[in-house]
Write a structure and sequence with these properties.
16 strands, TIM Barrel, 8-stranded mixed beta sheet, 15 helices
């Protein structure tokens, strides 16, 4: 009797296989050596040893990265993207002076839909080249920002700004909310976008406006993100005016909860840390901006000890000069949580100045920077290839930035 061996199953066709020397999945923690990321339909379908992946899958595109570490795309949890056009304005001054004497006067004169579109496009290109595949933005004219983000291919949580004083965007809090929600309605079906209500800060938004924000946020299930206790002066003014911290005031108004995102959170009292923990609120740590503006250092260790989720943000390029989450990770000595779809970045560790590499995770935080990011995929689509933008024209971005520089000088 002749015995026939069972036929091996045919390899599964998929869109993309990326072989890498190291894969750092972030969750679960650890490093996978000589593994392959398998992508189909814009989603990760497997992470497997390369030898197994080569037997089990037939990719339409195959990428080999023999000296790279592959990891999920980075998330910039707080930025003002369009302010890339204000990069370098009034360096080395404190936050209050920086805002009141330099930034707000220029915004009153120059901010427009074209300014926001061009600045956001420049920022999106910079973020993509640095391995950022998703950002949380907060600036005027969110409709113009959305157009730029769609062109670039980056994911975005688009903040709908609210202030109690007039700007070129709106005259009062009601005007900001109406304009922002109209932008959200226009773009809410874009799969790479999500939205948040983004009041500037407790000291620029009054109680009645906060109450309206809470109503809209609950009705539409939108998160609320705001700058909180960035400076000691902000905390002390609130204690004098309200006999409580800005966070305690927001809690009294019903703002806090799991959908509340506190940006900066530098000057927190022990009671503030406890309140954030009790409400399961989120904090965005922006170490580069806080150091540059001499605001202080957020109590990240205390927050993490109480179980508060802490993400990383660059803030705007005007207050940081670089939209660089790898650089922020080096300052904070931690990595942000990242997206779960097929968003991935490749970081090249081949150069001699990065050798030897005993621990790729340590290298990501302490050795390499955004200049070593060579390739970026969002939903399985390559948006940076061998260090060059695919969805945007770098020379056009430079021309847009120079145009606005000439206008503002």
């Amino acid at each position: 009797m002749t015995v026939f061996a069972a036929a091996s199953p045919a390899p599964t066709p998929v869109d993309l296989c990326i072989d890498a020397r190291w894969i750092v999945p972030i969750e679960p923690a650890g490093v996978l050596v000589q593994h392959t990321l398998v992508v189909d339909g814009g989603r990760i379908v497997a992470v497997a040893p390369t030898a197994s992946a080569q037997r089990e899958y037939t990719p339409r595109e195959h990428v080999s990265l023999p000296a790279h570490v592959l990891l999920p795309g980075l998330v910039n949890a707080h930025t003002h993207a369009a302010m890339a056009l204000l990069r370098g304005i009034a360096d080395d001054v404190a936050l209050k002076v920086w805002l009141e004497q330099h930034v707000w006067p220029r915004e009153a004169r120059f901010v427009s839909p074209d300014f926001v579109h061009d600045g956001t496009l420049v920022a999106a290109g910079e973020m993509l080249l640095g391995g950022i595949t998703c950002c949380a933005d907060q600036y005027f004219f969110p409709d113009a920002a959305a157009r730029a983000y769609r062109q670039s291919g980056i994911r975005a949580l688009i903040g709908l700004p609210v202030l109690d004083f007039p700007t070129p965007y709106a005259a009062d809090a009601d005007g900001y909310l109406q304009a922002g929600l109209a932008a959200r309605d226009a773009w809410k079906h874009e799969p790479k976008f999500a939205f948040a209500i983004a009041p500037h800060a407790p000291y620029t938004v009054g109680d009645s406006s906060w109450e309206k924000i809470v109503v809209y946020a609950r009705q539409l299930d939108l998160p609320i993100q705001t700058h909180l206790q960035e400076t000691r002066d902000e905390l002390e003014q609130s204690l004098r005016a309200h006999a409580m911290s800005p966070l305690a005031r927001l809690d009294r108004l019903g703002v806090t909860g799991p959908n509340f995102i506190a940006v900066h959170a530098v000057h927190l009292r022990d009671s503030d840390v406890e309140l954030l923990a009790e409400q399961s609120s989120q904090v965005v740590h922006c170490p580069g901006s806080n150091l540059k503006l001499a605001s202080g250092i957020a109590p990240v260790v205390r927050l993490k000890a109480r179980g508060v989720n802490v993400a990383l943000g660059s803030d705007g390029a005007a207050s940081n000069n670089r939209l660089d989450v790898l650089g922020e990770a080096r300052l904070a000595a931690l990595l942000a949580k990242v997206a779960t779809e097929a968003d991935a970045i490749a970081v090249d560790l081949a150069a001699f100045q990065h050798a030897p590499c005993y621990d790729p995770i340590s290298h990501l935080v302490h050795v390499v920077g955004r200049d070593q990011v060579t390739d970026v995929w969002i939903a399985g689509k390559r948006v940076v290839s061998d260090g060059a933008l695919v969805t945007l024209d770098a020379s056009e971005l430079a021309a847009r930035a120079r145009l606005w520089q000439d206008r503002m000088q």
